[in-house]
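call fold(seq) -> tokens
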Amino acid sequence: QVQLVESGGGLVQAGGSLRLSCAASGSIFMTNAMGWYRQAPGNQRELVAAITSGGSTNYADSVKGRFTISRDNGKNTVYLQMNSLKPEDTAVYYCNWAGCSGYGCHDYWGQGTQVTVSS
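ret:
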């Protein structure tokens, strides 16, 4: 099993910043990619940003230029720096880990952390 522990969500005013963290632990052999997804009420879960073990990144168009994803490979931790937050960024943010562990190659999800942006 791989466990993901998220932190950093909360309530912030529009224009403010938050930093999310997600630490993966367990019998990890190889991490391929880590990322952040979000789901607002009534909407499908959508990709926010992802980063591969080699450092390649991918962002949703709606967050480009405002959010930055980074990772610490040694700590199996991924970060999401969110700046210039907008009310439409309000959602539950989920961390995703994809790789191989003692249980095979799978992807795992965190429990989610609420981000609320007030106008």
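The chain has a mean pLDDT of 95.
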